[in-house]
Amino acid sequence: MEIFINDNKHEAFDNETIIQVTDRLNIHIPRFCYHKRLSIVASCRMCLIEVEGAKFPQPACSTLVREGMKIKTTGSVTEDAQKSTMEFLLINHPLDCPVCDQAGECELQDVSLDHGDYKSNYNEMKRTVIDKDIGSLVSTEMTRCIHCSRCVRFGEEVAGIKELGMTGRGEKTKIETFVNQSLTSELSGNVIDLCPVGALNNNLYKYSARTWDLEQKNSISFNDCLGSNIYYHIYKNSIKRAVPKENEQINLSWLSDRDRFGHEGIESNERILLPMIKENNKLIQSDLNSLYSITAEKIKEFSPNTTAIMSAQSSCEEMYLYQKILRENGITNIDHRTKECDFRYQENYPVIPSFDIKINDLAKMDNIILVNTNISKEFPILSIYLRNAIKNNSTNVFSLATYNYSENFDTNINEIFSPTDLVRYLRDSANNQLASIESNHKNLIILGPSSTHLKNYTEILNSTSNFAKLTNSKLALLGDLSNSSGAWAMGIIPHRLPGGIQCDKYKEKNYVSAYPSNDMFIVYNLEPEYDFSNDIEILDKLKKSKYNIFFSSYITDAIEKYADIVFPLAVQQESTGTHLNTNKQLQKSEAVILPKEKAKPGLDFLHNISKALGLDISNKQISQDISKILSSINITDNYVITENLRVPKEKDILEKYIIRSPNTNNPTLRRCESLLNTHDADNFMSLPMDMNITEDKKVTLTEHSKQIKINTNIKTHSKPENTILLKFSGRYKQKLGSCNSVIDIE
Amino acid sequence: MIKNIINFLKSLFFIEILKGLRITGKKIYKKPITIQYPDEKTPLSTRFRGLHALRKYPNGEERCIGCKLCEAVCPALAITIETEERESDKTRRTTKYDIDLFKCIYCGFCEEACPVDAIVETSIFEYHFENRQDSVMSKIDLLKIGDLYEKEELKDRSVNKL
After folding, report:
1. Residue of A nearest to B96 (CA)
2. Chain B residue nearest residue A131, CA to CA
3. How many angstroms separate the CA atoms of A397 and A212, rounded?
4. Which residue is closest to A235 within chain B, CA to CA?
5. What is the pLDDT of residues A486-545, one digit of tens each?
């Protein structure tokens, strides 16, 4: 239809509101409560504009366009309405712009300057509101609130948890949490961006810089395999805050708390800032050139008996060069699956494990089955898509879990099993609630990374794939770290070269099986204490090995003890590289800050080592190779069916398994104090109940004849049956032990 | 020819010199306008923009709230500020407030931008440095000057009131 805006003819669609048309045409209308991804309430009245024929100015956000409508976004009627609205809004708004973190990017400030009056008729006292403590991530200054209710609607509509609400009426209206609770949603940080004034602030950024000093740089998230797009705001070579960069294919306008606050660890005092070498049992500073030649020498010396493990958080370039250097020198035992302990599936695994469908297509699914995936904690961005699917497409969601967790959307079926029972349930799908899933529907099964840590992962993968095949479902395999898909494609696995080409002459099937004959470890961006499925075993092996080379950003006790060479690795935000996300999109992230002191991006170290080994390969060559590899890969389905698996017995052995918090997933996240203070940073350990743990606060576990002391609150869960969940209160220092060992409890 | 004769006569009777001496004669009995600088000083405007100072409230609390407006407005980029939340009362405070006096052009914009009248330019116009790095005035130095010159500052401000 045709409408007239300021006497100019414009096209508009049916059921569009005025503000949607003007936003599309880049015609500015001031607004506070309207947000394109939230419902319309028309409560702030800032968008009042003149509509010809209407008696009063109309709110542009909630007025639908009509054929031939004549709108004026300027002119005396509109301007008068906006001026008086602004005057009312400023009645109770404090004049503390000089100390407010929002100043400079404040919508109230901008609109007041453009549309407000310079004087006010109000001479009474302004109201004050007491601040609330709503957790370690979001700080409040509630006097500044103008009651646009964006944060309230965000909680209801997007995050799915009604955490913030409006209480009181009139002047006594307040935004607060229910009985002073703190925000628990994994998406809570988004209210900071939504707040048009400085009422809800980023606690990390608080008072540390001003908006006009900040430099905005593009980056991506390194905390989960979705690769959310981020703008980092930099001041004096340090990341001050992260805000979402809009990407309609991944993170929309949102960001998970992990991505928003996950840069805190970069400033940690545990950062390794110097290249170090061990002399007389002590790590001392060394110069890089000699380290390169020593590393090259040692690679040649120990070549077949070396285990090289690498974090799947590294970029594709690092991965490609790493495996190239090692494979050229006869080292085949390269792996990234350090948190896993079951590798029987590996031969049939897809070359690039991926989400299989585009994330946007989640909304088209009829049935979604979540297998051991706590979507709202592990992939908060995905939970937004899932919520939309349920809302708009009435998708059925089935949740099959191994521990009791809550989701921010409604699930049709929510079952909790032990891992063995989970396999049994999936095998028996014809006779249980899964029978309702029909093959002519659009079905999706999401298998999350927490399953990979289980000792019967192959069985889970197998039964899930069989079930998926039976019901003609898509199988989404979500990776544990930002570049898990890339690690498989780049050959950071013993049995495959880059591009999924079968490697004939590999010696060991996985990094664990190489332990007995191991002479040297090369550990790339992994921390022995926290990144391994069995930390006790790896520490033991590191101790026995003849030489250990570490590339690490942070120092830990184990690195200090067992490392012979330490390269000071720059964190991902300090280095340039590409990451392959679960949508199979290759995203480039430029270095946003310079590395601290003598730290360097991993690619620099690898280039120099490769030169020392007589292998010269340029960055250009690497990126050409990577694009060649990725284009050559045949994309197949994600089904992983392994033959000859043991059928689980009726009453299997007692199971102990660890549920790792996604908030302690990588070295940088482990050092984000404010994230660790949230509920989501808890790790759990499930233990068989038969072990008679008393309700004592202290538990000592003996594992491999080594004692692990855990101070913890024992929380008994009725489900899964015969287990209790031990909660680790957020500290990454806690050692988790192995997933599959025999334990004694004192 | 005639010009030369006139010039000769003028030089013969010291006409030019007498003309000059007339000025000297006039001024010799008048009050001189030069002053003996270290002992005597010229009067200053109450709005004189001299050395900077950071002021405090009468209760001893520093005025500066770390809004960085002076840093933003400074045309010579002479001001460097770092801020953080003060532990005791959770207010915004500076941890660093440096002014490089070599860079400063004494324009007074910082004084004008300050929403709490914390940074001021006092009437101190005579100071020197013995080392190059001394030109950077730290927060402590500036507060000290503020303490010393608070009375004069108040007096100047009362005159300048609109």
Report:
1. A208
2. B90
3. 45
4. B82
5. 999 999 998 889 988 888 776 667 776 655 567 889 999 998 888 888 777 788 888 888
CB of B68 within 8 Å of a chain A CB? The answer is yes
User: Are A524 and A549 within 8 A, CB to CB?
Assistant: no
Question: Do A401 and A387 reside in the same domain of the chain?
Answer: yes
Nearest CA in chain B to A103: B67
Interface touch B65/A208, C-beta < 8 Å: no
Q: Select the residue of A98, A208, A212 nearest B65 (Cβ to Cβ).
A: A98
Q: Name the domain count of chain A.
A: 5
Beta-sheet strands, E only, within A237-395: 238-244, 276-279, 282-285, 306-310, 334-335, 367-371
Domain of residue A417, CATH code: 3.40.228.10
CB pairs under 8 A between A and B: 26
Residues A299 and A423 in one domain: no
**CATH number, domain containing residue A257:** 3.30.70.20
For residue A6, tell me if it sits in a domain: yes
Whether A32 contacts A148, CB under 8 Å: yes
Written as one letter, the residue type at B159 is: V
Higher-scoring residue by pLDDT: A127, A714: A127
What are the distances in angstroms from CA A16 to CA A10, A11, A41? 13, 11, 15
Chain B residues close to A208, C-beta within 8 Å: 83-84
Helical axes A316-328 vs A602-612, angle rounded to 10°: 20
Question: What residues of B are in contact with residue A209 (Cβ under 8 Å)?
Answer: 83
- In three-state form (DSSP H/G/I as H, E/B as E, the rest C), the secondary structure along A114-142 is HHCCCCCCCCCCCCCCCCCCCCCCEEECH
- Is A320 a member of any domain? yes
For chain B, say whether A118 makes contact (Cβ under 8 Å). no
Q: Does a structural domain hold residue A102?
A: no
Please check whether residue B65 touches A, CB under 8 A.
Answer: yes
Can you tell me the mean pLDDT for B155-160? 85
- Residue A120, pLDDT score: 86
CATH of the domain at A541: 3.40.50.740
Which domain covers residue A37, as residue numbers? 2-89
Assign residue A697 the CATH number of its domain.
Answer: 2.40.40.20
Tell me, yes or no, whether A300 and A327 share the same domain: yes
**Domain co-membership, A619 together with A533:** yes
Picking from A407, A442, A477, the residue at the C-terminal end of a domain is A477
Boundary (domain end) residue, out of A443, A477, A511: A477
CA-to-CA distance for A56 and A65, rounded, in angstroms? 16
Q: Phi then psi for B142, rounded to 5 degrees?
A: -65, -40
Provide the Cα torsion A507, A509, A514, A519; round to 10°. Answer: 50
Partner-chain contact A98 B91, CB within 8 Å: no
Please give the pLDDT value at position A656: 67
- Tell me if A207 and B84 make a contact (CB, 8 A cut-off): yes
Q: Answer whether A267 touches B (CB < 8 Å).
A: no
A242 shares its domain with A324: no
Same domain, A263 and A313: no
Inter-chain residue contact A208 with B92, CB threshold 8 Å = no
Do residues A357 and A473 both lie within one domain?
Answer: yes
Determine the angle formed by the axes of helices A288-301 and A602-612, rounding to 10 degrees: 60
- With CA atoms as reference, the chain A residue closest to B81 would be A209
Residue A456 distance to chain B (closest CA, Å): 49
What span, in angstroms and rounded, lies between the C-alpha atoms of B141 and B53? 8
Q: Give the model confidence (pLDDT) of A365-384 as tens digits.
A: 999 999 989 898 899 999 99
For residue B144, give both structure tokens. 């000290």
For residue A122, being part of any structural domain is answered with no
Quickly list H helices, A339-456: 375-378, 380-393, 419-427
| B84 has a chain A CB within 8 A of its CB | yes
Q: With beta carbons under 8 A apart, name residues in chain A contacting B115.
A: 98
Same domain? For A469 and A552 the reply is: no
Looking at chain A, which residue has its C-alpha nearest residue B114? A98
Nearest residue, CB atoms, B85 vs list A206, A209, A210: A206
